[in-house]
Amino acid sequence: MEVEQTPNFDRLQQLKAFDESQAGVKGVADAGISRIPSIFVRPADELAGDYPVSETNLQIPVVDLAGRREEVVEKLKTAARSMGFFQVVNHGVPARVLEEMLSRARDFHELPHEEKRVYYTRQTSKKVQYTSNFDLYKSRSANWRDTLFCVMGPEPLDPLQLPEVCRDILMEYTEQMRKLGTALFELLSEALGLKSDHLVGMDCAEAQAVLSHYYPACPEPELTMGTSKHSDPDFLTILLQDHIGGLQVLHQNHWVNVPPVAGALVVNVGDLLQLISNDQFISVEHRVRANHVGPRVSIACFFKPHLYPSTRLYGPMKELSSEDNPPVYRETTMQEFVAYYNSKGLDGVPALLHFKLERT
């Protein structure tokens, strides 16, 4: 579907046309366009005020999980405090599972339109959602990306709700992520000076949402984004990315590339882990560049039980707070935090600011 570009285009009308097509960005790209529709073009002030890409040799840390535990904990602590991002190797997830997950996710997004559209929805309460731009009607510009969003726990999802083309591997991949996530939360607990089961005991590893992202090749990547600048509304994210690249992390007012490393998984601290760690660990903003080359496929596993009723309050842990280091944030529920995050969309303003306590 191609949307005509005009100087004074009716943005809402074009957004509705794009949404109602249920064809996603892939449908736009498949139309053989040479220019991207106006709804995807970033505002001029945003383009002009963008941060530069780092020209230094600064790299995201790569942590070998097969190393001595004390050394692994120390490396994770340094990375979580300084960068908020790191890559892990020797993580225990078989290469076959990683390769098949990427392949099957790509297969889903490349299904015939009539087969794929049955999963298209903007109902955020559904556990299986195929959509494009969860914040389509809130953002200043749409992102060049489609997503299959699957809530895989803590309650087991009926496999029959999942698309058949990726059903089996999604179930297997989620189980692998559950094991790896639990191991990472144990290591990060120790990095905070706590017992290894502390974060798991706070239900941080209780639930996973698996997001399969698809970024078609873009004819004008310099005008749009694959994913706008944001931080993640969860405790931890584990990302599997293919060979194309495009992920960037904001560090010291520069964008730092996160190049694909064969067999590695990218891990980043989420907003809620920064909140409960009282800023000891940082959830940093990141984005994905659009690209002439594509499609790019990535699989993000979010650890957050947001679709399940819970009155549990999350605030800075008392073990990490003191008179000299008072709580930085107020308490909140998972549902409140995610609802606020979704209500504002990817607007470039960290959601954590909304939950900060005023210092007297």
TrEMBL record:
Superkingdom per UniProt: Eukaryota
A GO molecular function held by the record: L-ascorbic acid binding
Keywords: Iron, Metal-binding, Oxidoreductase
Boundaries of every Fe2OG dioxygenase domain copy: 206-305
Statement: the UniProt record of this protein carries the keyword tRNA processing: no
Cross-referenced Gene3D superfamilies: B-lactam Antibiotic, Isopenicillin N Synthase, Chain
GO biological-process terms attached to the record: coumarin biosynthetic process; response to molecule of fungal origin
Pfam families named among the record's database cross-references: 2OG-FeII_Oxy, DIOX_N
Family, as annotated: Belongs to the iron/ascorbate-dependent oxidoreductase family.
Protein name: 1-aminocyclopropane-1-carboxylate oxidase homolog 1-like
Gene name linked to the record: LOC113734267
